[in-house]
Structure formats: structure tokens, C-alpha cells
Amino acid sequence: MDAQDREAVGQRFDPALMQHARTLTWQALHGIRERMRPGISEDEARAEAKQVFEQLGMERLWHPVIIRIGPNTTKTYREPSHPGVRLAENDSYFIDLGLVFSGHEGDVGDTFVVGHAPEREACAQAARDLFQEVAAAWRDEGWNGQKLYNYASERAEMMGWRFNHAIKGHRVSDFPHSVHKGGDLGDLYHTPGKGLWILEIQIVHPTEPFGAFYEDLLADPAP
Questions:
Q1: What SUPFAM superfamilies has UniProt attached to this entry (predicted)?
Q2: Count of CB atoms within 10 A of residue 137's CB?
Q3: Structure confidence by residue, pLDDT tens digits, 132-156
């Protein structure tokens, strides 16, 4: 599949609406964050997330709401969570949202800590920092998707974290992006286009049962 096919969009695609969906999806993520507190379960958090989505006027989900707490932060996207996990007093969690606004797909994720958990804070910040490093390489060097993910893996190891190689980023666009069959960002042999690809970063502590996740659109930095 050539670059043009991988980056095909629908007739209604609008870069401004992609940014709009991105902004509102970040707002939704932080709205959920405000509701997270010790004792909440993943199921309860997802139920409360629906209220946040309604307030923002979300049209639909394009992928399930993912909220991972504690040891479940080491799980990959397709792995089921351990049941019954609740947010502890000094703990971490991440939120991964795929929401549709104005017919365009937002996809964002971030990791947060409650209480006093310095190692978990360091892990969450490392995922954010690694995302920014890789995104900067895309902007400044024009690297292709494969090189970006090779670099992410190398940098994660140098930073002292295990990198999740199963996550390789993906396409977004006007809904549904799946009709364009863009494939994984990590398998892309050309420079990914602006505002079309999600860079996903997931790292895990080398010995302890927690990790961190961060994702956002490869585009100009969010305001």
C-alpha cells in the first residue's frame, strides 16, 4: 500500500475539525480525571465518563473507553483487565479515549497518580517525555513511522523502562478511519502526514506491576 492510500481521507475531512475533535477529547479526558478518586473501579469510572461525554456533546465512541488502574496499567489495548481492581490511596491509572466530534476522530491518552507514589509519577512523566521526544523527531527530522518507533524503543530502554512493542500507533481522520486501512504508524515507510496519525507510547516498570500510557495526534503542539 503506497503513502497516498495509507493517508486517504473522506470527502468531508477538515483539518480544523480534526483539531476540534482533539481538543474536545482532551477536555473529556480531564473531565474524567476530575472524577477519579481512591476506591473507584474501572467499571465505575467508565460509567461516570458517559456524563462527561454528554456534557461535551460527543457524537459517538469510535473505540471503547479504556481506563486502567494499578496493575492493569501494564495491560495492552486488547488485553482484558484483572477484575475487581480499585484505585488505591497511592496509585496510578491511565485513560485512553477515542471520541467522535463533528464527524472527526479524537484519540488521546495520559497517565495520572493519586496520593504519594514517586515511582509511578516518574513513569507517567517518562511516557509524556518520550512522546514529546519522538514527536519532535517527526517534526524536526521527518523520520518515517518505523524509525520513530525504533527510536522510541531505544530511548525507553535508555530511560530505564520496558517499551510495549505491541503498540505502534495508527491512523485517524473523519469517521470512520477504518475504511482507509492506513495500518500501523510503526510499520510506515514514509514520513507520516500532519494531523493524520496517532503516536502511542506505553512503558512498564522493569520489575514492578505498573506502567504508563500517553498518546496524541502527530500535529502542531496542542494549545
A1: Creatinase/aminopeptidase
A2: 16
A3: 999 999 999 999 999 999 999 999 9
